[in-house]
Specification:
Order of helices and strands: HHEEHEEHEHEHEEHEEEEHEEEEHEE
Helix content: 25-40%
Distance between the termini: 41 Å
CATH architecture of one domain: 3-Layer(aba) Sandwich
Bound molecules: S-adenosylmethionine
Shape: globular
Strand order of the largest sheet: 7-6-5-8-9-10-11-17-18
Number of helices: 9
Length: about 375
């Protein structure tokens, strides 16, 4: 193991990644730099290329590496390693397991799965991305991974798997994955209130299908029927400058403000109780957060991490009042964590390619 990778593993542990000895060994063994051989986009928009100053140090950080953009939109990346660790831990892979991965991307996560002893089939919708993943897996000498090109909705017809992991944000779960994956679980980031909480999903293709939340995440969205709109969809995230005329509506409740985990818990509950909850860049603040968006898409109410509510637009009073009620309700419920909800899923989306989407929620008292 190189010093760089040893420090990388220590950093993941410090950042709260649930590193079993097997998972720590996988992160130490797999050379992430080989999987970003074409470079990645830095936060300032420039590209970091192999061989340039600081490249390897940046690769072995607990950070997402954007590896392909379309215009200004990221369309492939190597996800944040500590998030990958949480998802892999939830997948509970055993040596010899057949694992279906949707979203091959760089191939790095597939290589980690292989290091855990899994036999991996990974599907990516972009042919050039899949080809680069194959090349990287070969260059790193990783056995036991097959990369296919296609829309992940179909999984791999005619095959079966022990577990499935989805590394791209979706609106719902393909019935094909449920049919092909026994016993499961399927670990999958599913849209909720403008973000993608990662769910552990269980059930058969015909239902019933249930889920619990593993952790918050902000994955890029999938192409195709996996992101179909459905009756329970929340509005799409609002970019910077999208909200207009927000002014204070209700004062702060907490000092210090909620930490990012508790704020995510409140946000998750807001998404359960309001179809208008989403993610937005907050006006006049260097902050993005939870907003109840009005039908115009420019007004509504924002709930800040300190509990203060801002409101704007023609229905500012109505949305501001609802926002205050949501904070009250979350407090009265005992500040439930996002992990305390049991989710029931229903079939919706494109009738030609339906998906199981979150539709009902109940609090699991033992997790409050
Ligand atoms: C965040 S990246 C995956 C990260 C990857 N697991 C890794 O370790 O680098 C998301 C990938 O999902 C792919 N994708 C998007 N929509 C898809 C779909 N409908 N089916 C399969 N792959 C899809 C994208 O092409 C992209 O490469």
């Amino acid at each position: 193991m190189t010093d760089l990778r040893r420090r990388f593993v220590e950093q993941l542990r410090r950042n709260g990644a649930p590193l079993t000895p097997e998972l720590a060994a996988a992160f130490a063994a797999v050379p992430r730099d080989v999987f970003v051989a074409e470079g990645f986009q830095r936060r300032d928009g420039s590209w970091a290329r192999p061989g340039t100053a600081g490249f390897r140090a940046a690769v072995y950080r607990d950070d997402v590496l954007v590896t392909k953009i379309d215009g200004r939109v990221a369309v492939s990346s190597s996800s944040q390693p500590s998030l990958m660790a949480i998802m892999l831990d939830a997948l509970a892979v055993r040596p010899g397991d057949r694992v279906l991965e949707i979203g091959a991307g760089t191939g790095y996560n597939a290589a980690l799965l292989a290091a855990l002893g899994a036999r991996v089939t990974s599907v990516d919708v972009q042919a050039d991305v899949a080809e680069q993943a194959r090349a990287a897996l070969a260059a790193a000498g990783v056995p036991g991974v097959r990369v296919l090109t296609g829309d992940g909705y179909t999984g791999v017809p005619g095959e079966s798997f022990d577990r499935a992991i989805v590394t791209v944000g979706v609106a719902g779960v393909s019935p094909r994955w449920l049919a092909q994956t026994v016993p499961g679980p399927i670990v999958v980031p599913v849209e909720h209130a403008g973000t993608h909480p990662v769910l552990a999903v269980e059930g058969g293709a015909e239902g019933p299908v249930t889920a619990t939340v593993i952790c918050p995440s902000g994955f890029m969205s999938a192409a195709g029927p996996l992101t179909a709109a459905h009756p329970g969809s929340h509005p799409a995230p609002v970019p910077s400058g999208g909200l207009i005329g927000f002014v204070p509506f209700a004062p702060a409740r907490w000092s210090p403000a909620l930490d990012s985990y508790s704020y995510r818990d409140l946000w998750y509950a807001a998404g359960v109780w309001s179809r208008r909850a989403t993610h937005a860049a907050l006006p006049d603040r260097d902050l993005s957060g939870l907003v109840l968006l009005d039908d115009d898409g420019t007004g509504g109410a924002a709930i800040l991490p300190d509990g203060a509510v801002l409101a704007g637009g023609e229905q500012a009073h109505r949305y501001g009042t609802t926002a205050v009620q949501i904070v009250d309700r979350w407090l009265e419920a005992g500040r439930p964590s996002m992990r305390s909800w049991r989710i029931g899923l229903e079939l919706a989306g494109d009738p030609q390619a339906p998906i199981w989407v979150p539709a009902t929620w109940e609090l699991r008292p033992e997790h409050l």
